[in-house]
From TrEMBL:
<keyword id="KW-0698">rRNA processing</keyword>
<protein>
    <submittedName>
        <fullName>NOL11 protein</fullName>
    </submittedName>
</protein>
<keyword id="KW-0805">Transcription regulation</keyword>
<dbReference type="InterPro" id="IPR048897">
    <property type="entry name" value="Nol11_C"/>
</dbReference>
<dbReference type="GO" id="GO:0003723">
    <property type="term" value="F:RNA binding"/>
</dbReference>
<dbReference type="Pfam" id="PF08168">
    <property type="entry name" value="NOL11_N"/>
</dbReference>
<dbReference type="GO" id="GO:0030490">
    <property type="term" value="P:maturation of SSU-rRNA"/>
</dbReference>
<keyword id="KW-0804">Transcription</keyword>
<dbReference type="InterPro" id="IPR036322">
    <property type="entry name" value="WD40_repeat_dom_sf"/>
</dbReference>
<feature type="domain" description="Nucleolar protein 11 N-terminal">
    <location>
        <begin position="1"/>
        <end position="335"/>
    </location>
</feature>
<keyword id="KW-0010">Activator</keyword>
<feature type="domain" description="Nucleolar protein 11 C-terminal">
    <location>
        <begin position="409"/>
        <end position="722"/>
    </location>
</feature>
<dbReference type="InterPro" id="IPR012584">
    <property type="entry name" value="NOL11_N"/>
</dbReference>
<keyword id="KW-0539">Nucleus</keyword>
<dbReference type="GO" id="GO:0005730">
    <property type="term" value="C:nucleolus"/>
</dbReference>
<dbReference type="Pfam" id="PF20998">
    <property type="entry name" value="Nol11_C"/>
</dbReference>
<dbReference type="InterPro" id="IPR042859">
    <property type="entry name" value="NOL11"/>
</dbReference>
Amino acid sequence: MAALCESFTLCGLGPSGGVGLGGGLLALEPGPEPDHVLLTDRGRTATLFKVSDQKPLGCWSVKHGQIITCPVVCNSETHEYVAVHDDKVLRIWKNKDINLDKVFKATLSADVYRIHSLPKGGPVVLFKGGGVRTLDVLLEAPQQEIQNVISDEVIKWSEAFMEGQQPVLIFTTEKDGDFFVYVQKLKINSLHKYKLEQQELSKPLSFTAYIKNQIITLLCLYSNDSVYKVLIPLHQNTEEEEQILSKSLLLNLSVSGSVLKGTSFVVLDKDHVAVLGSLAASGEESKECLTIWNTKFQTLQISKELPLGTSGQLWCYEEKFFFTHGKVLTVIMYKCETSSLAAAVGKLKDSQTPDVSSFVDWNTLGDEELVVSFQSQQSVALKSESRMTLRSKRNTVAKVQPDTLSVGQLLLNLKDASTTVFEDELRQLMSKAQMPDFQATIGCVITALINRCKTNPKYYPRNFLLQIVETRDLSYSLCPDLMAVALEKKDIHLLQICLQRFPDIPEEITCACLKVFLSMSDAYLQTIDVNLESVICYIDIEFNNKEVKTEIVENGFNAELEKDIWDTKITNETHRTADGEFCPVGPQKAALLNAVLHSAYSETFLLPHLKNLPAQQAVLFLRYLYYLYVKCSEKINTTLPGIRSPTINQIMDWMCLLLDAHFTVMVMLPEAKELLSNLHKFVRAQVRFYSQLNKIEGSLRELQRLNHQKDSQTYSIEVLELI
């Protein structure tokens, strides 16, 4: 039995996707760690993603005018990345490298078709002429001659395996309508060529293979809507130059009069394959679908319609499907269980079967699809409740016990319920703390609330959403539409809590929150509920909401001594910012900006969105960051008091990012001139102070060493002369 579970978006693919995949996706390869994938676009960029967090971990690009011509792979032994651009130029780099112009480069003597990374054998390079080399051998002499194995043939597909300690590479070629299979064993330099048995009026569209018990099983998806299986023994005794490979029918992609026109497929286990293609019934318009088939019993297990269209590519890693859907890269988790006849025809009665319908995306599934996907759970639930009288949906919501219905079916039944019934049932569902997939259920509850907000603009359960976010350990990926709706509704308190609690907020959403916070007046923010615990300890508030003058401890240098290099006036009572005021924003806005400063980000993906900040807002934000920087410098440990107060590193990082994004605008704006000048002078004073500390660092260490040597148990006065 197979099932499709949770789905989510990994990244965008359009020009605004933010990950450099505007040219479309060339390939997806496993990364250096589990849960990491490496994306290569049809252009200049490779991006490393952590799938569970939907966060990019690194992004590398070749120069303009250069093109990455085969998928970037990760060397599992060295954790280095290997790429080829412009067919012959090899690049190798590590995570810490940023500029690919400065990493290892080698120009090869022949065009590369693809690089395959093996778990224990290192990368294997396949050239367009059919030659094969391991990366280690190739690096010994990059300009070594690569002899062509094929002539007038075009490579269509390739894959590499490890059979024990032996790397094995298989690739298929096409010439004048004939298809050939090559098997290369690298260690013993053994190459076998086979010819694929022809199929009348059809040709292979896609290939996949796996190796087991010294036998390669090659699966071929043909244009006649069928999947064929070809067995290739790894050990050949015959010296025959070219053998004909016979094939056997594995699966016919048709069900109930509908035919699946497959474009790509992957093997899930010994009894299941997944096929991506267009499902068409006679007289009806074809629809692109992701399907899972049982090859043992020739049945369609599950199908998911993809209305936004796909590129025809399908990848599968760690029980997750990856494919393009519209302008995004979508991930769908799946489950495959032991194949049995009862499961294959949907008659398996197993009370222990997990509720895979806990994951429901109402944005992509229609009512009919939900009913189909929950059909088996429904039948069990209705039989167990056969004595109950169910009312018509036209009158009220069916009063079936929640324990007997799947989460998805319960949410489907509540879709047209009244607001009171809807929220009461959701609260009851959340109260079952021992239920499986509890976090996913909470995500479904929030999704249900958000979808009702979208269909009914007047409905917005602010208190309910606040209660869920404050009491549950959630993440942005579990409820991706929540912050978008909160931004639309200008729900400042909910946005603040999300920024504080969600570890995986995209940079685009973080900048959207920053723009909203900076655009609101301090007078308006005083009327709404904002958590001030991050500012209350360093911005003293009177009843008229003005900062109280407090004593300032200068951090190691005297204002009079620095007067020649720092014109900003420093007194023992107050520390003014560039415009002569105290904190440039009110305490409510300061608390909201602190929440932004605490959010996680990647500089590469934050900068483009930060550049969209209006100039006046950028100046105001920089004034506040400067104020925080001065405040931190007043303290001996450069740490602001309070809960969730920003650290000196966070302040400096955001200040540098803001200046990088808006430096030209800042220089041109008259109101920013004094601010930049004072910031420059203050930083210069700090640098001079720390350089003076460095001069006596050796003496201080010697003093510390002398104090450790002495055991001063009695009172004494010592005079130490520092030379």
